[in-house]
Each structure stands twice: as structure tokens, then as C-alpha cells.
Amino acid sequence: MNLNISYNWLKSYVKTSLTPQEFAKRISLSGPSVDRVQEKSTDFGNVVVGKMLEISKHPNADKLNVAKVDVGKKEPIQVIFGQMAVLKVGDQLPVAIAPTTLPSGVEILEREMRGVKSQGMCCLDSEIGLSDQDRVTFFPPEVKPGTPIAKALKLEEDAILDIEITSNRPDAMSVIGIAREAAAILDAKFLYKQPNPSLAIRKSVIPAHPEAGIHNAGSPTKLGMTKKGLPLSIKITEPRVCPRYSAIVMTDVKVGASPLWMQQRLLASGLRPINNLVDITNYILLEYGQPMHVFDYDKLLGGEINVRKAKKSEKILALDGKEYELSVDQLVIADKQNPVAVAGVMGGELSAATAETKTIVFECANFNPVSVRKTSRVLNLRSESSALYEKGISPENVTAAMLRAIELAQQLCDAKVAGKLIDEKSYKYKDREIILDLERVDSALGVKIKPAEIKNNLEALGFKVIAKRDKFKVTIPWWRENDMEGQHDLIEEIARMHGYQNLPTELMSGALPQTIATVNFALEDKIKDALVGFGLTEVYTYSFISEKQILGAGLKSADHIKIANPLSADFEYMRTSLLPGVLQIIAENQGFFPAGRLFDLSQVYLPLGANDLADEKFKLLAVCYGADAEGMAADARGVLDGLMQRLNIDNLTFKKKPAGSEIYVNDVKLGEIKVIDNKILSAFGIKKAVAAVELDFAAVAALAKSAPTYRPIPKFPAIELDLSMEVDNVITFAEVANVASDAGAPLVDKVDFLSVYQGEKLPEGKKALAIRMVYRDLNKTLELAEAQIAHDKVVAELKKSYNIVVR
What we know:
With about 800 residues, this protein is α+β, with helices and mostly antiparallel strands. About 25% of the residues lie in helices and about 25% in strands.
């Protein structure tokens, strides 16, 4: 997981004077890796604070206005603007003075608009890169006209750090987490302070209502105010899945745009500012690594929050605008009647805070990572929150995150606490301790590190250390409880803090372990080397395939093993053939490689029984694609013949099938050779012909020989007779060669492919196929008349089998 954060934001929690590049280098050596540093400039071009002196309608355009603007020069400039905002005389806002280029790349030039000169442009925040919202930033009167925007907004040069966080470190997936790491690595001061907002309940402006807890359609009523504030009850029926749930009611909320500093920090991290309420929850997500949600209090039926499993066929309209049907094993947050959020994944649209919201409920909770992961995958619904919960964040993170949210709501939304802070926990936190053997540290790292250094480094990371002779008793901080299992994890912390670059480097000594060579491994290499030598490319395909791929390949899903907990619908079944995966590769790459030769040597998984493991068979699939069916069939036959020659397997025979031919040696079936049906190709979106050879590796291995069987050079010459015929398009050369070899036996030495033709001179559905029959008698010189008799038998059998017409 990668985290993009503002370096200035990070420096608010760790005291450092390093440049972003130096910081990235130091941190990457001993902590999370910084993949990229992106400088963020404060150069807005010639954009300054402009004061509106005069505003009038454009004489020749109803929707345009003309303004005289003071930009700090001797004379004001004239600017034409549209309906971007309700501007009035005295307003101060960003103005681009022509000629200049905005950060977005837009060039501003002096020009006439319907006969009136414009010497600049009034700028929206989105046009100068302050935010992605089409709004105007206004400046107070004390800001002098002509002041550069960066100076007026007190913006500093910044950099965005792209940091890679490993999945076992959810504590570091936040600004505070990275700052804590950086403070330890850099031996710098950690500037974090626990938030301390006022939790005193203020008297609400909302009057008590006689129908408290009842909602009317289209006009929800308010719950009655009491001395203890607005009522809110929390009930957790699934404490094992939700060990902690914290909530608070706040009222008199003023919803609006977030301050510029918050918007810029969110944008730097790839999150779009919405409004101050939503932005606070996203800000906490980034700052503390703790997902939060905000409900509109008036939309919670009965003033209740129930953490429960969903009811059968219950549905929720989520914030992404889609409706999801829930199952009984999925955790939801519900009011008195209906789900208002999918726990740990996404909130509901109907209970969300809007611009009209006055009273809110902040939710900050912890959910079981397995439950969140399963729900997210089944619903195919991902969010920033689910990505964090899936990693296993500590429930102890809730306290500070909730206090920070209350603090920001009071500062940015003028919100008042309207109820007590509710904190339901089903656990009692207990510090975990690990005994660290110092001798084990030296042995594992190959270098002796001073106990004082070990103690100092661990304490800098937040561990508590008590020395006991040659052992340390180490107390794990709550934010590291999920990834610290034993002393081996502590040793890793010691190593990285000491510096991997400072550990000794030595070549291994002693005897190398002997590998056990097997016949099958050697044969695999031999087959792969041969196929690569023939010009084929090896591919690796997934063992899991989708039902769509199974049906597209002409197979039945019932013949496949179905996965109980698939990663997604694309990986629902175990493959019984390599063909679907390879066809998918051809489909995805045909635009870049319109012709090709591929092979895959992997396992397939055949069902044995209800409670048995799969029967794993090793298969070889070689495919040729990119031209007509006949040419691809000839290529596939060439691959087969060449491979059999390399493996010294003789006496191939073929048995015709509706979808191709089965390959035999004596009575042993090796596999199949076929041209893939056009219906299958269409299902995968493949536009060219594909021919395939599929072999059983075990059968091939049993017949393969390390050396060829000796055959003396023929003493007697051969007679070659060519045969040109008209035959149906669907008949392949391999099928013709198989029939011809059998019909002319024992005199047929081999059958060679010469050419194929399809065109206007032939009847529809026909092609001209030319082959060369090679006849030889191993015991004497073959007479032409004898060869002709065998040849006539071949022609007769081909007419009988395929209704050929000799040309």
C-alpha cells in the first residue's frame, strides 16, 4: 500500500530541517521506502491579489461583466469576467495579469472580447491549482492589492512523498505513524500531542419535540434535548466482530468549504475535498490511519445505532450511489430499522451529512479485518476505509482519532458538543511483553550491538524496555501489537535501526546443499528448450478461472472444482484445461502481437470426489495463431513433429474426432491436435485462427527416450508422388496425412505438406491441398508400378473418407 503525504504536514509532527530528498534517503534505509519525491511549487505565475474598483455590464454581451481592478500598479487594469461568482466592488480575489501562464498551463494574454479589452483574468481556485473546486478565494481588506498569491496565502514550498508501506505495518499508514518512525530513525523530536477538545455539553438550539424518535416522511423530526444532551444509544450485538465503537452527537454545525490548508493536504494525498464535515473524516483517515464516518443525526431513526449482522435480503444505498443486497453474515451499522452503513466499508447515502445538516453523529470504531475483507470482496465494494481495516488496525487508535475529529469540528464547523462521548468496548487492553535474548540478537545479525544502543532504539520506536542481565523485557506499544509476535520481530527492528548498511557482509562458507535431480525436471527443461528453439514463447496462466472462460472454451462448469472463497468472480474455479487461460492471453495481446506461438507447461486440477483433493495432472499446451486455419494446423503439426523428434518418440498415429484428432503411440494416448472452433474464438474475442496441441506430460514422459532408436540409412531409394486435391475447408492436412499413411502402409515412408489454396477459382467451402507421398520398400528397390498401386489405394481411401476431387 502506498501513501502520498505532504512533507510540510509530516514536519508538523517531527522536528527536522532535512530537505525532502535527504529525508527520503534516510527513512528508506531504515524504515518505509520512499518511492518518489514530487516537488510542489508555489509559483503561480503573475497571479496577484486584485481589488475590484468598478464593475459594469459588458456593452455587447449580456453574460459578461467588465471590472476595473487594482493590482498594485499605478493604473488599474481592465478585466472581463462571466458568471463565476457574485462579485462586488471591494472584493479582493486572485487575478492573473496578462501576459502570464497559469499552473494548469493555460496562457493568459491581453485580448479584445466583443470590442472591449481584457488585460487579465479573475481566477477560480481550480484554475490556479489551489484546489479542485470551482470556487473563489477572497482576501481580507488588510491584504495589499498586488501581493503575490503565494505570499498572501502564506504558502510554503512543499513536496509530496510517495511512501510504500508493507501490509504488516498498518500503524505506519498515516502521517503520525510515519512521523513516529521518522523521529526514531532521525533521532529527532516527535511533536505529537494528544488532542484535548472541550467535551462540555452545550445547550442545543434545537427545541425538544413531543414526537421524539419518530420520523415523518419528507420532514424528519428532531429528538428531544435533555440535560444530558441529545439522546443517542449504542448497541453492539456482535462484539467479536466490532470490539469497539465510539460516537458523539454535535450540533449547530456549519457546513461549508474546508480551509485551504486542509484542502491542499487532502489533494496531496489523492483525496478530493468535499466539505468541512466529510473532509474532517478523510483528514483523520490520513493523519491517524483511522477510518471515521459522519451521520446526519436527524436521519437516524429513533436516535439509535445498532451494530448487528444484516437481515436476509436487506439492502442499502451506499455513498457510491449503488444499491447493495446484503447477506446475513455481513456486519452493518443500523438505526432503529434500517442499515445506515456497511461496517468498515462504506456509509449509506440516506443517512449521509449534507450541506443542510445541522446535527451530526461522529462514528469511530474498530472492526474485525477478516469480516471487512470478506464483505468488501463479496460486494465488490472497496474504499480507503476497508483497505485500512483489512490490515488489522488497533482498537486503541479510536480514542485519539475521535478527540481529534471533535477538535477539528469545533474549529472548522463551529460545532457544539450535544451529547456525551459514548465509547463501547468489549475488551480490556493489556500490555503484551516479549523477552529478548541479547545473545540471540548477536547470533542472528552476525554482529555485536551494544545493549545500550538496542535499548535506546527500541525505546525511540515506542517500546518499553527493562534490562535483566543478558535479557530485556520489552513491552509492546498498542500501535505495534498486531505485527510483533516474538523476539525475531524485535531483532528485525534492531537491525533496521542499526542500519542494514552497517551489518557485516560476508560470503557464505561451507558445503553447498546438493540438489536432487529428477527425470521429470530434466524433461521439463528439455521440452521448454525445444519449444523455445522452435520460436514459441512460454506463458504462465492462472490456476483459477472464471465461469465465463469455462463456458467460452466449450467446457462445463460442473466438471470443475469450485472455490469456496474465491478472490473474485474471475477466479471462481480450478482449471481442468490450460486452453481457457492461453486463449485469454491471445485475446488480450492480439492487438500488439497479431500472430504468435505460445506454450504453457502447467498443472490442471480434476475433481476426484466431494471430500477429496484434486487430481493434479501436468499438461503441455502449444498454440499457433495469426493466419488461416490450414496454415495454423500445419504449424501446430510441425511443432508436434519437431517435439516428438527431440524426445525420440516414434510411430505417431491419429484418430479423427469431431473437434480434431487424438494423438497415439501404439495404444497410448498422448493428447489432441485441433483447430479451435470459431464459436470458442468468438467467445474470447479472438479474430484469427488458432490451432492447438495438448499433451499429457505423464504419457509423454513415459515414452520419451534419452537417445533416438537406431535406424540404418535406407539402402534402397524412395519414389515421390505428388497429389493435388479439392477438399472441404474444415479438413486439415494432419487428418489427410493420417488417412494417407494408413492407406499406403507399409510402403508410405512419410507425407509432406506442399501448399494450400483458397480462392475464387474453387467452389465455395473448398480448398486445393497439395501433398507429397514418399514411398519406400526397406527390402528392395521399389518399382514405380508398385508405388502407383499404393498411391491409388491412398487416393481411393481419401475419396472415401473426405470425398476429395483429384486435380
